[in-house]
Amino acid sequence: MGARSWSAMAKRDRNHPSIVLWETANEIIRKSNLLPRHRISVAARAADPTRLIIDESGGSRAPWGSHVYLPYSSEPTPMVDRHIYRPAPVNRRDYNHLQTYGNADQLTLISEVGYGGAPDLADNVRRYKENGNPKSPDYRFHVRMLDSLNAVMDKHELRDLFADASALCVATQKLQADGNKLQLEALRVNPKVDGYCLHAYTGGDWVVGAGVLDIWRQPKLLYQACTEVQAPVYLAIHAELQNVYAYNGTTLTVTVVNDEAAFQADLAVSVKDASGKTRSLASKGVDVGNSITTLLEQKLDTTGQSGGLTVTAVLTRDGKTIASNSYPLFALTIDQLKPTAKRVVLIEPKQQLWRFLEGRGVETARFGDGKDVAGPVIVAQPDAWNDQQMSTFRSLMEWVESGGTAIWLTPPSNEVYVGQPIYRQPEKNYMMQLQGRKKVWPLRTSRLINEGIFPIKLVTRRARGNWIPVGHYTRQHPIFDGLPTGDIMGHPYQNVIAPYSITNLPGKAIAGSVSWDVIRDYRGPTDWWHGTDVAIVKHGKGTTVLSTLRIVDNLGKDPVADKLLFNLIKWSAAPNK
């Protein structure tokens, strides 16, 4: 859109009460779009002297940055304008990272954040059939999406987890509502952030999963979460660690954000354990300032606690509740984290597993050191990088074929890219050129697969989600003993969620992922796809256990990662598996 078109649009809509500010460009990649930024912004200023004008939404990710034109000014002032998409469930690292954004001396706007999850496709299609036009693209792609979701559910036997397509869609909404509430909360308690904008209010076309409402204006679960976090007085509860080693406990912080005048109130904080028993943690009078105030910082003793815990904070004044909030924790005891194996055999380059297991009293040996292999071999190396390693992996697969069990914590695979090619091609991407990138962004490939050592030709894709949410699920299985199962993976899995999934394994996965992709035009979203995160595959007389969960990097830091590793070893060593 050129300067003349921008001027006409601003004159047309400048008296509309819903227009808060103007943004003249979005995520510029091509040099031809960068050059006219100032000219277009000045044209918009001439047409509307009173509103803020931002020359590029998300421009702070690029070397040239974003700028704001203040009311009655045609001069650009540097600002921070970022787009942030964090996968749900939100972990501590991402929550804390959101609190680092912004500069105290610059306007800071997060102009894209959050996404709402899949719409209830069955309900949408019903509404289309009652009131829609079957010739319209949106009618057709909603029907196609529902049909493909049902096909995925049948092919991968997901109906024992989700009764129907509506149940699965709503489960993804719950995941995103919880995750987005934490993202918005982190931005709201960040004093350097001046504002934020949810990616899409209404879902439709290729942003069908981003909206707070679906295309029929039906609220997703994110709607209520946004209402809660945007209250004039909001209580934020945060834990130093949300997944807790019960014998260590964690530290709780309660913060209030107040858009009203300062006042005095009473704060009550309690915790409810997995059995439903509630105990008080704090009860005191507090001074609530008219901005952001820390009300409580306290150590939480979780000795002997196991499973889900819920911390609740309530702020009252003269007996009336002003604000309240709840925050989930997950704890595992020392008995639940005791290894059952006395000795394990490893293939790994960084010795992370070795250090962790030796620290837990488990003897370790290196595969191929000439000693007898008893029990499973744990592999934490995705590929072979020299001929000696190729020989080691060849021996491993021969051992598996003869009856052994190998646990691959980083399975070999060839990666496929799903997305717009311009984000990987320097010759078309001006920002990549300025950053000195001369080659197409590489994809992961496997020498083990391509040279026939690893017999399963696994194909993987990224499965983290951005404004297209990815729902990871898990079934009840000994590998997940002691952990929540039978649903979309929620906050206990925040650190171990698989960053990529295997897309070419048929049948029933122990853990997997579901989502769709987009074509950025009127054709809308693609069909749903399914990925496998945890699976068991027979090879000859032996067994190969495949996991794309982020276990190794979180050992000793997250009890869920520890529990998963010990469960994998225990199941793989069982004679009747």
Please provide a written account of the structure:
The chain is an alpha/beta fold. It folds into four domains: 3-114 and 180-219, Glycosidases (TIM Barrel, Alpha-Beta Barrel); 121-169, no CATH class; 247-332, Immunoglobulins (Immunoglobulin-like), CATH 2.60.40.10; 335-573, Rossmann fold (3-Layer(aba) Sandwich). It contains 13 helices and 28 strands. It has a nine-stranded mixed sheet with strand order 18-17-19-20-28-27-26-23-24, with helices on both faces. It has a six-stranded mixed sheet with strand order 1-2-3-4-5-6, covered by helices on one side. A five-stranded mixed sheet has the order 10-16-15-12-13, with no helix packed on it. Helix 7 (165-188) packs parallel to helix 8 (221-229). The model has no long low-confidence stretch (mean pLDDT 93).
